[in-house]
């Protein structure tokens, strides 16, 4: 087992990893930018190393600085968390070259699944259902028009190196293609340095349902059931739940088997998710694989009583998994609390938290790194907390979430707490009747 793990991340996920390491008797090293000097992950780690100024490009994305921090502290493993370098094949490879265990997928696995066009082809070979689409990348605008005409509108063009909804466009008719194709290429090039595009048939009324998988170094994988992530804004998840209100035992079995097949086909090591679009008929299609721990992993932990961070560390240390697949025996909902103003188009709201009261009670979990007096920097993602409620039934979990949101007080900055409170009263959400288009018709009541 590892003696010391460096956490190449910040905020609540860094704190989350530190907690599990401490329970396992493993020493921890926090890295931080100058903007995060007062963050809780810095205070709670056994050691802390400043790796640069506030911009992530000069700190949390600066591979040489992170490797240097690991070497001077004699860390024998690095946990990347999510975001930043967690799905960076180069970082995984460099860790290996320096004799430091990367707690996650290998560089080869990240390469195969990180590029969406390559991932789709890999899944076709594995026999996992994929969305009908282009054979590899589109050559140019003319190729895009030809492919869309053969496939039939509506279609979706996507950046092969994409994420967070960047470089994605839904196109309903040929006369829209040129404008959307060009803007998607420009956006993808600016965001990822890669303007490569591919095309898929647009699935109408889809749900975004992902399957949590874990694979070990022996090539064996298992799944820990699903999460429904369909409530999204601009392809960014707002809330998640498990089990999905749309799910049936038969569909879960089929999707779980497909996800395990996907993981075992590439010899996947670590925790990851296989993400699917599911249409109203229950037909599902591979969308992408996230080769890292997910933001929403706590709801899975709650319903199967499993510490996924611990599982990641054990697998990275060479421990074999049991191979057992899990089904949820409770219901859990997560609300992402962001420092954003939901009454003003979710505009970011960095600044100092002047008052903080956290909810509690049976079945309430709060993953956060903030405290009263904490200054939320403008340099990073706006998520400041994850509020999770768990109960015997979905109705009880929603009721518990309403109560917890009413207790949750954050003053000094705007947050998405009012949005989530209204969501919990929305009749379509209560009925479980929502798709990825849900937010297009949602309006905040003043």
Could you please describe the fold and organization of this structure?
- By secondary structure, the chain is of the alpha+beta class.
- The protein folds into 3 domains: 4-103, Rossmann fold (3-Layer(aba) Sandwich); 132-201, ATP-grasp fold, A domain (Dna Ligase, domain 1, 2-Layer Sandwich); 207-440, D-amino Acid Aminotransferase, Chain A, domain 1.
- 32% of the residues lie in helices and 26% in strands.
- It is built from 14 helices and 22 strands.
- The radius of gyration is 21 Å and the shape is globular.
- The model has no long low-confidence stretch (mean pLDDT 96).
Briefly summarize what is shown.
It contains 14 helices and 22 strands. It has 446 residues and is α+β, with helices and mostly antiparallel strands. α5 (107-114) crosses α6 (116-126) and α12 packs antiparallel against α13 (417-423).
Q: What attributes characterize this protein structure?
A:
single chain, 446 residues, alpha+beta, Rossmann fold, D-amino Acid Aminotransferase, Chain A, domain 1, five-stranded parallel sheet, 14 helices, 22 strands
CATH topology of the largest domain: D-amino Acid Aminotransferase, Chain A, domain 1
Strand content: 25-35%
CATH architecture descriptor text of the largest domain:
2-Layer Sandwich
**What does the radius of gyration come to?**
21 Å
* CATH homologous superfamily caption of the largest domain: ATP-grasp fold, B domain
Gross geometry:
globular
Q: Round the mean pLDDT to the nearest integer and report it.
A: 96
- C-alpha termini separation: 53 Å
Strand order of the largest sheet: 13-12-9-10-11-14-21-19
pLDDT below 50 for ≥5 consecutive residues: which ranges?
Answer: none
The total beta strand count reads 22
Q: What's the domain count?
A: 3
Counting helices, strands and paired strands, the structural category is alpha+beta
The helix fraction, in percent, is 25-40%
CATH class of the largest domain: Alpha Beta
Let me know the largest β-sheet. 8 strands, antiparallel
Q: What multimeric state do the chains show?
A: single chain
Number of helices: 14
């Amino acid at each position: 087992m590892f003696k010391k793990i460096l956490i190449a991340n910040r905020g609540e996920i860094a704190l989350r990893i530190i907690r599990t390491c401490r329970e396992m008797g493993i020493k921890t090293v926090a890295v931080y930018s100058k903007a995060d000097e007062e963050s809780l992950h810095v205070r709670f780690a056994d050691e802390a190393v400043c790796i640069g100024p506030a911009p992530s490009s000069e700190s949390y994305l600066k591979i040489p600085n992170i490797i240097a921090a690991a070497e001077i502290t004699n860390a024998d493993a690095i946990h990347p968390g999510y975001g930043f370098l967690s799905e960076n094949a180069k970082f995984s490879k460099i860790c290996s070259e320096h004799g430091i265990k990367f707690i996650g997928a290998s560089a080869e696995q990240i390469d195969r699944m990180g590029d969406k066009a390559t991932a789709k082809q890999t899944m076709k070979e594995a026999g996992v259902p994929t969305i009908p689409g282009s054979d590899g990348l589109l050559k140019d605008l003319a190729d895009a028009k030809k492919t869309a005409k053969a496939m039939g509108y509506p279609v979706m063009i996507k950046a092969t190196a994409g994420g967070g909804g960047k470089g994605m466009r839904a196109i309903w008719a040929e006369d829209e293609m040129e404008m959307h194709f060009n803007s998607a290429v420009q956006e993808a090039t600016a965001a990822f340095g890669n303007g490569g595009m591919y095309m898929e048939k647009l699935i109408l009324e889809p749900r975004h349902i992902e399957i949590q998988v874990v694979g070990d170094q022996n090539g064996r994988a298992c799944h820990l059931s699903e999460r429904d992530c369909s409530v999204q804004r601009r392809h960014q998840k707002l809330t998640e739940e498990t089990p999905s209100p749309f799910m049936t035992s038969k569909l879960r079995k089929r999707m779980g088997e497909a996800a395990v097949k996907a993981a075992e086909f590439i010899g996947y090591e670590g925790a990851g998710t296989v993400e699917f679009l599911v249409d109203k008929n229950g037909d599902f299609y591979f969308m992408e694989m996230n080769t890292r721990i997910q933001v929403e992993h706590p709801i899975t932990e709650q319903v199967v009583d499993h510490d996924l961070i611990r599982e990641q560390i054990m697998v990275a240390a060479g421990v074999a998994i049991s191979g057992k697949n899990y089904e949820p025996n409770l219901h859990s909902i997560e609300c992402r609390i962001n420092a954003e103003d939901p009454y003003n188009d979710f505009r970011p709201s960095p600044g100092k938290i002047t008052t903080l009261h956290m909810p509690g009670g049976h079945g309430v979990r709060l993953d956060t790194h903030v405290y009263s007096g904490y200054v939320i920097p403008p340099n990073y993602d706006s998520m400041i907390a994850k509020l999770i409620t768990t109960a015997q039934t979905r109705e009880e979990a929603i009721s518990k979430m309403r109560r917890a949101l009413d207790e949750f007080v954050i003053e000094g900055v705007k947050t998405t707490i009012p949005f989530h409170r209204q969501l919990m009263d929305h009749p379509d959400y209560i009925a479980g009747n929502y798709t990825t288009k849900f937010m297009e018709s949602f309006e905040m009541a003043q």
